[in-house]
Amino acid sequence: MQLIVADDHEAMSREAARAIAEVLKRKPGASIVIPTGNTPLQTYRELVQLYKRGEFTTAQLRPFQLDEYLGLPADDSRSFFGWVRRTFLEPLDIPVERLIRLNGETDEPEAACRAYDAAVQQAGGFDLAILGLGSNGHLAFNEPPSDPQSPTRRVALTEASITSDGAYWGGRELVPRYALTCGMTHLLAALQILLLVSGQAKQAILEKTISAPITPEVPASYLQQSPNVVVIADKAAWPQAVPY
Ligand code: PGA
């Protein structure tokens, strides 16, 4: 695990966008899993700037959704599908049909998860997993406790996630209670993992993710065991000296 500490959120976002662009230069057909959340928004804007300067192309990029609320139509303003479309796909000229969805608009969540798994397998796994860090240590919606074998599945959101997602939508009552999540197995097997962490509110959980004993109670702590993990944090999230 490598830890890069950037001065602030903007610098973290530039660093992250450069790292993603490097993957796409090397492998234009890379399969990449794309998170929502506030943390990567500026990274995506920086990435679009690099794209517009011609640093990489997106014609072959294979995007995968990371997680999705269960039971929302795709055109609901809270749908993660819509969020990925607005912030990543459209600005990078990627046709929305190319996104491998985790389809939360279904009465058969199990079948939706197996269809997603089949697509990940067909792609040969992820070349790059871009991830944010939940304030409770979740990766995607692999809520605590989640072990490294956790499959793609339907999950009940924890109180912590309902509270933090409530900030996106104007209240806890607006947060769906169930979601589909890409499993830990796929994420941990990605050839490269980029964990983006920003802000003082993430200090304590980032410390646990990097330095505390590995435990299902902090699913992100399993990243300590994965060889190709780069954590890009800002100083607000990691104010101490870099430990190694
Ligand atoms: P955030 O969410 O980027 O909005 O902090 C991260 C997450 O919950 O995974």
Could you characterize what this model shows?
The protein is α/β, with parallel strands linked by helices and 244 residues long. The chain has one domain: Rossmann fold. Helix content is 32%, strand content 17%. It contains 7 helices and 9 strands; from the N terminus they run βαβαββααββαβαβαβ. The longest helix has 18 residues, at 9-26. The radius of gyration is 17 Å and the shape is globular. The chain starts with a strand and ends in a 10-residue tail after the last strand. The model has no long low-confidence stretch (mean pLDDT 97). It binds 2-phosphoglycolic acid. 2-phosphoglycolic acid binds at residues 37-39, 132-134, 164.
Percent helix, as a range, is 25-40%
Radius of gyration: 17 Å
CATH architecture: 3-Layer(aba) Sandwich
Q: How much is the average pLDDT?
A: 97
Output the structural class.
alpha/beta
Summed up:
The chain has 244 residues and is an alpha/beta fold.
Features:
alpha/beta; NagB/RpiA_transferase-like; 6-stranded parallel sheet; 244 residues; Rossmann fold
List the helices and strands and how they pair.
Blueprint: E1 2-6, H1 9-26, E2 31-34, H2 41-52, E3 62-65, E4 67-69, H3 80-89, H4 109-122, E5 128-132, E6 153-156, H5 159-169, E7 178-181, H6 184-188, E8 192-197, H7 203-211, E9 229-234
Parallel strand pairs: 1-9, 2-3, 2-5, 5-8, 8-9
Antiparallel strand pairs: 4-7, 6-7
Helix pairs in contact: 1-2
The structure holds 2-phosphoglycolic acid.
